[in-house]
C-alpha cells in the first residue's frame, strides 16, 4: 500500500497536493481539538465489536509521549487500510458504531509527527520524518506542502500494553505537552463515558473513571409490563465513580431513550444537581459533541447522521426525531423538578435548537408525565394547573378533579413552561365555575374553604370566588356567598334568612361577602316579623320551633318586642301570643289579679325546649318588658303611658318599661315589688326615676293604702321627716320608684304640705327649706297648680317647728327683726320671687308685706368700696357694688308691724329707697 501511494504521488504532483491538503484541512478544521474524542470513540467501537466492557487507559511515558490503549477488537486488515486511506472506513454501514467516514484518526496528526499503532494483530507506525525522506528519495514534487503523516506506514515489532488489545502511541510534535494532553483527557473522560456506549472505564494517569448503569424500578403498570430490554433502554440510573489517590467522587445521572439518549445529573436525593460535573457544554452530541448549540435543560446524545467533520447534522437528518424519550426522562425525575426541564423555545440559539425544542414540547404535550394531584401521571394537553396550589387544596380537589396538576408542579414560576406544553391554567374564578353543581357533604365544602382561605388575600381574589357554591342550612346550595349569613352557634335552618350550613361555615365566607349573623340579628330580622304578622298557623308552628331553637342555642341580650306576638300552644292546645302566656309555677301569676288575661303555656312545650327560651321569647315567668329604640310617642299599650309621656321634656332615646303593672292585685304589691327588684331584667328599670316603670309605681302601686310616691327609701335623707320610710326588704333598690325631693303632682304637693304641717313630725329646718324650694320649682314648671292645693293649717317655720302663723321671708335683712318661728323659708337663699310663689302656695303673706322699717338717722354717704361695705358683703353674702351706702355710728331702725312699732338695733338694712345702711367700724 505504501508503494502504491508513493507511485501515485510520483506520477501526479496534484495527487500529492490533494492528499496533503486534505489531511491538513481535517487536522486544522474538521477534527481540531477532537483527539481523545476520536481515539476513545474508536475504542468504544472496538469494545462493541468484541462485545466486551471496554477499558481505556491514557498516560504519558515522558514529556513528549502520550499513550492511549484500549481493550476490544484489535486492528483488522480492513482497519489498517482505512487508516492509510482518507475517507474510507472499515466500519460496517448500519452497525452500532461511532465513526463512519474513516477520518477521525486524522486528529492524531494535530499533535504528533510520529504515531504508533500497536495491536495484538500487528503493529505499525506513521512517521512524518520517514515520509519526508521517502518523498525526497523518490523525488516527489511536494512544493511547499508539509508531508502528510497518515498516508505512509511501516511495520514495527511492538505489542500493546499488557492487558490491552490496541495501543496508540503519540510522539508529540513541537508545541505540544504530554502533561497538557493528559490533563485534557482527564477533563473529557467523564463526558466520553456518558457519550460512548460500550465503555466501562477510562483511566487517565492515576485517575480511574468508571461507569455503571442500572435500570430504574418501573413506576407504572405499563412499565412493569414492558420487556426488560425496553425498560433498560427507557430509563437507566448511571453512576460515574472517579477514583484517584487523593479521593473518590461519585456522580449520578438519569438516562432515557433509545435512538436519542436524554441525560440529567441528579443528587443523592434524586433531584437535579445544582452544578453538573460533566456534559457541561450544552451542545448536541452524536454521540460526541457537535457544534450545534442547544438550550434544552437535558443533555441530548443522538444517533442522527452528521456531516463528515462530525460537527453538523447531515442534510437528511431530522432532528425532531430526537425528541422521543424526553417524556421518559420527565417521569423518572421527582415531580417538583419536572417543570424546570420543559424547554423554552424563545431561548433557542439556532434553527436546530428551535426545531428540537419544538419537537420536545410537542412530544411532552401528548405524553403522560405531568404529576397529578390524585397521584396519576397526566397528559399536559388534557390537564389543568392552579397556580400555587397548596397540598391542602389539592387533597380536597383531587377526588373531584382528575385533571388537576400536583402542587409540586404548580408554583407560579412554572406556569409559563406548563402552558407551553398545553396545560390549561385555571384561577379562582375558573375553580368556582368548575365546582358549580358539585354534590359534596357540608364538611367537604368547609375543608375546601379552609384550603382556599390562604389563597384569598385581596379583594380581587374574593371577587373571583363570587360564584363559589355555598351549602345552606335549608339543604339548598347558593351561588356565591353574598346574601348569605354566617350564624355561629345557630345550627337550625331558618326559613326567613338564608344561612350557611353549620358544618360548612368558615371565616373565608365572610371575606367572600357573607354577613355574620348573631342570634339577636336573626331574631330582629324584618323577614321574621313579616312571617309572624302574615304566616298561617302551620307555618308559624315551624317558625316557633326555629325561634325557640335559636333562643336555646345562644340566648340574646334582648328580644324584639314584636317577637312576643309569636303564637305558642297553651295548656288547652290553643295558639296564643307568647306574651299572653305564663310558665307553670310563674311567680308573676301569684301577684296578678284573679281575672288577669293570661293563659298557661303547654307543659309539653316547656319540657321540650326548657324555661329560658320561652322566657326570652316573652312567655311570662316574671314581669315582661317593652323595649323600643327611638320611640316617637305613647303607643306601646302601657297603662297611663300618655300621662307619663307628658312629664317628659324630650322623648327618650330608648323606651324600656315593665308592662302589665295595672294587673297587679293591690294586696300583693309587696310581693310584686320583690319580684321586680330581684329580676335581672326588671331591676335596672326601677333605677330610672324618670322612666315609665318607676313613674307608674310612684303613682299607682299601693302599700298600706299609700302610693309608693308617698314613701321614701331608708337611705334617702333629703325628705327625712317629710316622707315616711318604706318598710320593705328591697326599699333602697326601689328608691327611684319612691317619693323623692321632687314634687310630681298636686296630690304629691298636698301630701308634702300636710306632713310639713304635722307638729308631731321632726323635720329639720334645712329639709323644710329644701322642700319649700322644690314646691316653688314644681309650681314654676306647671307641675302643680297653687290654686288647686289644700292650704295647710300649719307650716314648717325656720326654727323647724310647725306653726299656725308665719310670713314667707322675701327680704333677708328682716331676719334681724323677726324670730325663727315667725318666718318660713322658700329656700336657703332668699329670693323675692320664690317667696311670692311659696306665699301663694301656703296662703301666707310675705315678710315684706307685713313688716316695714325706717332708719332713724340719715348716716354718712360712703362708696361700695369702703371697708364696711366690703365686710358686710363678705359676711351676709350680698354684693354692694354700685349701691348707695350710708354709714352710721349705730344703726337703728323703727319697725312697724300690725299697727305696732319698735326700735331695734341691726347690723345692716336696706330701706325703701334701696339705700344700704351699715354701722361704722370702730376706729382705733
Describe the structure.
With 924 residues, the chain is of the alpha+beta class. 31% of the residues lie in helices and 19% in strands. It contains 30 helices and 43 strands. The strands form 15 sheets. The chain has a twelve-stranded mixed sheet with strand order 5-4-3-6-2-1-7-8-9-10-11-14. Strands 38-39-43-42 form a four-stranded mixed sheet, covered by helices on one side. β10 (248-256) and β11 form a beta hairpin. Residues 225-233 have low confidence and may be disordered.
pLDDT under 50 segments (min length 5)? 225-233
**Relative strand content:** 15-25%
Q: Which percent bin holds the helix content?
A: 25-40%
- Give the end-to-end Cα distance, rounded to a whole number of Å: 166 Å
Question: What strand line-up does the widest sheet have?
Answer: 5-4-3-6-2-1-7-8-9-10-11-14
The main β sheet shows up as: 12 strands, mixed
Tally of helical runs: 30
Quick recap of the structure?
The protein is of the alpha+beta class.
Write a concise keyword list for the protein shown above.
924 residues, alpha+beta, twelve-stranded mixed beta sheet, four-stranded mixed beta sheet, 30 helices, elongated
SSE blueprint and pairings:
Elements: H1 2-11, H2 13-30, H3 35-50, E1 54-62, E2 65-70, H4 77-84, E3 112-119, E4 123-127, H5 128-137, E5 153-156, E6 166-172, H6 178-195, E7 199-204, E8 207-215, H7 221-225, H8 228-234, E9 235-243, E10 248-256, E11 260-266, E12 283-285, E13 289-293, E14 299-302, H9 326-332, H10 351-366, E15 370-371, E16 377-378, E17 384-386, H11 391-397, H12 415-420, E18 424-426, H13 428-434, H14 442-452, H15 459-464, E19 469-471, E20 477-479, E21 485-486, H16 507-511, E22 515-516, H17 519-523, H18 526-534, H19 537-553, E23 567-569, E24 575-577, E25 581-582, E26 599-600, H20 603-609, H21 611-617, E27 625-629, H22 641-646, E28 654-658, H23 669-678, H24 683-686, H25 692-700, E29 702-703, E30 706-707, E31 711-712, E32 724-725, H26 746-757, H27 765-781, E33 795-796, E34 802-803, E35 807-808, E36 823-824, H28 832-842, H29 847-850, E37 851-855, E38 860-862, H30 867-876, E39 885-888, E40 892-897, E41 900-905, E42 909-910, E43 916-919
Parallel strand pairs: 1-7, 17-18, 21-22, 25-26, 31-32, 35-36, 39-43
Antiparallel strand pairs: 1-2, 2-6, 3-4, 3-6, 4-5, 7-8, 8-9, 9-10, 10-11, 11-14, 12-13, 15-16, 19-20, 23-24, 27-28, 29-30, 33-34, 37-40, 38-39, 40-41, 42-43
Helix pairs in contact: 1-2, 3-6, 11-14, 19-21, 27-28
